[in-house]
Amino acid sequence: MTGRRETLRRLTVCSVFAALLSVTAPLTIPAGPIPITLAVFFLFLCGGLLGPVDGLIALAVYVALGAVGVPVFSGFQGGYSVLIGPTGGFLFGYFPLVLLSGLGRNRPRLRPLFFLCGLFACYLFGAAWFGLVTGNHPLAVLKLAVLPFLLPDAGKLVAACLTIPPLRAALRRVGYPGDKTRKDLSRRMDTRESICYNTSVNTDGKENTEMNDTEKRTVPGLISDLLAYGERTGLCSPLDRVFLSNQLADKLAVTFDGGLPEPRDAKLPEILAGLCDHAVEAGLIPADTVTYRDLFDTALMGILTPRPSEVIARFKSLAAKDPAKATDWFYKLSCDANYIRRDRIKRDLRWTVDSRYGEIELSINLSKPEKDPKAIAAAKLLPQSGYPKCLLCHENEGYAGNEAKPARENLRQIPFDMDGCRWYLQYSPYVYYNEHCIALSEKHEPMKIDRSTFAKLLGFVSRFPHYFIGSNADLPIVGGSILSHDHMQGGRHVFPMERAKIVCPVTFPGFDSVKCGVVDWPLSVLRLRSSDKDAMIELADRVLTAWRAYSDPARTIFAETDGEPHNTITPIARMRDGEYELDLVLRNNLTTPEHPLGLYHPHKELHHVKKENIGLIEVMGLAVLPARLKQEMAQTAEAILSGADLRADPVLEKHADWVDELRAKYAFTKENVNEILFREIGAVFVRVLEDAGVYRATDDGRAGFLRFLSTLDGRAE
Ligand SMILES: [Zn+2]
To answer: What is the distance in A from the centroid of ligand 1 to the CA of 470?
Structure first.
C-alpha cells in the first residue's frame, strides 16, 4: 500500500468514527443533572480499534464540531459554552479515556484493564470539574456525577470488549492500515529495526495477529518476547533472563544498548519468524528456506530448553507420584520447546470412515517440511558422516543438524530400563496421534522381535499404564521405515484395532491364566489377556517361534524361500481393566511375480492411494497417507465435476480406474464430491489392510488361522 493511500484510508476511518460519535453522543437517557449517553461505548471503540493516535484525531474532530456549535454533545447541545459548563470536564476526560484505550490496542488480554483505567481518568476529570463549577460537596459530586454511571459504563465496557475483535477483522478487510501484512512490513523494515508485528493470544486462545505500525519490533524486542514466552511456559525462569538473553544475542549477532524492551504477549511461531527474518537479512543463514530457518530457530529454542539432567530429574520426581503427570509434563515441554511444532501439526488432515471393522481413522500428514532444492544440493557436498548414525540414535539429543540431518537442540529424552537394557523415551516430532512417543534402544542395533521384546512391551505398560506401546515387525516390507535402530512407538490413543472384539476365543493347554482369541480385524491378530505377565511372555514367545517356522503352501504362506525368512510379528501391548493385553499381528513379507512389492502388502490396484509399507500405526487402523493425496484429490474433484479425462493427466492417471467405479456408483455434485472422495479413500484403506492380512477375515481365513494355532495345541472354544 502506498503512503498516500494509507493516509487516505486512515483519515477516512477517523472521519467515520468522528461521525459515529457525533450521531450517537447526543442521544441520552436522563439520569439527574448528567445524562447517560452511548458516547463512552464509541470512545472505547475509537481507542481499541484505531489506537491512540487515530483515536484521538477522531475524538478531536468530534469535540471541535461541538465547540463550533454543531449539536453533537449530549442532548443535542453545541457551542463552547458546553465545554466550560458543569459537564465540560467529562468531554476533556474523553481524551485520556481514548488515549489509554488506544494504548491497550495490541494487548487483547489487558484490554479491559486499559479501558478501566481510561474510564477512571475520565471520571476523575469530569467529577473534579463538576465539583469546581457547581461548588458541590465531593460526596454530592460522587452521588451526582459518578455513581449513577458505574453500572451503565461497565456494560459499555463489556460490550466494547466483545465487539472489538470482529470489528477489527472487518477493518482489516477494508485495508485499514493499522493492520499490516508481514510482506508490507518486511519491505519497509531496515536490517536493524528488524520486524514490527505483534502476535498475541486472546484469552480464548485464538490466534490474533495484530500489527502496529507505530511500534516497531526490534531484535532485542523479539528476544524479550521469546524469554517471556519461555518464562510463561515454564521452559526457563526469570532468574535465567540475563544469562539467556546474552546467549540469544550472541546467536543473533546483536548487542543491547539499553537493556531489553518490555515483552509483548506474542505467539512463538511469530517470534521465531521475526528472528529468522533477521537471520536472513544479517546473513546468519545461507538462504531463506524452510531447512535453514528450521536449523536456525531450533538452535534458538535449544538455548531456552532446560538441560537433559534437569528434565530427567523433574520427570522422575513427577513419575514417582503419577506416571501420567510425568508424561503430561514431558509432552508439554516437547511442544513448548518447539521440538513438536504445534503450528505445523495443525495442517495435517484427519478424518474417519465407518467400515465393517468399526470406525477407521485416516490422516494425510502435511507437517513434515519438504526438503528444499538448495538444501538437497548442499547435503550432497557434505562429507559422509556416521554421526549420529540414524534419526533414532540417542546422540541426536542436542545435535545441531545440517542440510541432511534435522537440528535437535530442543530434543530431550528420558532414560529408563527395558528388560535390563537402557532405553530412552522421547516424542515423535510429527505426532501422528495423541502423545505419539518413541522408545529407543541406547544402542544402534537392528530391530529384532524376540522374547525380550514382549518383556519390554509389558514392562513399559506396567510403568506407563496410560500408554499403549507396540513394535514394528523386524523384516522389510512389513516393517516400518527404520529397521536399523531397535525402537517402539506408543502413546495415549485408542486405535480402531483396540476397539475390535475377539471373534473366536482360543485356549492353549498349560495357559489357563491367559485368555486368548482371534480378533475381528482385517489383519491376522491373536489377542492375549492376563494379569500373569510371565505366562503371557511365555505364550507370546511360543506363538512367535511357531509362526517363524510355519508354512502352509496351500495358502501361499512360506516360512522362508531360498533361506530368506518371511514370517514375523507386529506386537502391541496395553493395559485394559488392570490386566495386560498383547496383540500379536501375524506378518509375512513374501513377494511373488504377480506381487513384486509383497503378497501381504497393498496390491497394485490400491497403489494410487497407498503403496508404502503397512507399519505399526496402520496395522492398528490409522492410515498415514502421502501428502501428495491432498492436491491430487482436489484436482480429481475438479476433473470429476468438469468431466475431464483423468487418463490424459500424467498425475491423475493412476486414479482413473477408481474414479470410473465411483462415477458408476454416485451422482457427483459440487457439494458431495469431496465427501465421497475422502470416504472412498477410507474404503480403499480398508482393502489395503485386508491385503496385508495373512489370513482373510472370513470363515475360511479363520480356519487357516486356527490351523496354525493348532500346531501349538490351540483350540477354538
Ligand atoms: Zn541409531
So the answer is: 18
Please check whether residues 57 and 167 belong to one and the same domain: yes
Its domain, for residue 259, covers 182-284
Give the Å distance between the CA of 492 and the centre of ligand 1.
25
Question: Are 20 and 162 in the same domain?
Answer: yes
pLDDT, tens digit, 9 for 90 and up, residues 300-319 = 999 999 999 999 999 999 99
pLDDT, tens digit (0-9, with 9 covering 90-100), for 320-362: 999 999 999 999 999 999 999 999 999 999 999 999 999 999 9
Same domain, 42 and 100: yes
Distance 444 CA to ligand 1 centre (A): 4
For residue 474, report the distance from its CA to the centre of ligand 1, in Å: 15
CA distances from 433 to 201, 283, 348, 407, 611 (A): 25, 38, 11, 23, 21
Q: Does one domain contain both 39 and 159?
A: yes
In this structure, is residue 567 part of a structural domain? no
Note whether residue 68 is domain-resident: yes
* Measured torsion, CA atoms of residues 633, 636, 642, 645, in degrees rounded to the nearest 10: 180
Q: What is the DSSP string of 47-75?
A: HHHHHHHHHHHHHHHHHHHHHTT-S-BGG
262 and 189 fall within a common domain: yes
Q: Is 653 helix (H, G, I), strand (E, B) or coil?
A: helix
What was the pLDDT predicted at 31? Answer: 67
Structure confidence at residue 375 as a pLDDT band (50, 70, 90): confident
Ligand 1 centroid to Cα of residue 318, in Å, is 28
The helix (run of H) or strand (run of E) holding residue 296 is helix 290-304
Contact assessment for residue 691 and residue 601, using Cβ atoms and an 8 Å cutoff? yes
Distance 562 CA to ligand 1 centre (A): 30
Query: Which region among 153-157, 410-414, 693-697 has the lowest average model confidence (pLDDT)?
Result: 153-157
Residue 364 Cα, ligand 1 centroid: separation in angstroms? 27
In angstroms, rounded to a whole number, what is the distance separating the alpha carbons of residues 439 and 392? 9
For residues 157 and 242, membership in a common domain is answered with no
Distance from Cα 152 to the centre of ligand 1, integer Å: 67
**C-alpha 482 to ligand 1 mean position (Å):** 9
Instruction: Give a yes or no: residue 41 inside a domain.
Output: yes
Q: Is residue 321 part of a domain?
A: no
Query: How many domains does the chain contain in total?
Result: 2
Query: Rounded to the nearest whole angstrom, what is the distance from the C-alpha of residue 422 to the centroid of ligand 1?
Result: 14
pLDDT, residue 392, reads 96
Asked if 157 and 202 sit in the same domain, the reply is no
Query: What's the CA-to-centroid distance between 397 and ligand 1, angstroms?
Result: 12
**Of 101, 304, 273, the residue nearest 197 (C-alpha):** 273
Report how far ligand 1's centroid is from the alpha carbon of 390 (Å).
4
Residues 201 and 169 in one domain: no
Distance from the alpha carbon of residue 497 to the mean position of ligand 1, in angstroms: 29
Q: What is the CATH number of the domain that holds 26?
A: 1.10.1760.20
- Residue 177: name the closest of 1, 378, 397 by CA: 1
Helix ranges, 643-698 (H): 656-665, 673-692
Compute the distance from residue 443 Cα to the ligand 1 centre, in Å.
7
CA of 707 to the centre of ligand 1 (A): 39
**513 CA → ligand 1 middle, Å:** 38
The last residue of a domain, from among 123, 149, 173:
173
Distance 489 CA to ligand 1 centre (A): 15
Mean pLDDT of 381-385: 77
This prediction has a pTM of 0.71
Partners of 588 in beta bridges? 567
Give SS3 for 156.
helix
- Distance from the alpha carbon of residue 583 to the mean position of ligand 1, in angstroms: 26
Using the 3D structure, point to which of 229, 257, 284 is the last residue of a domain: 284
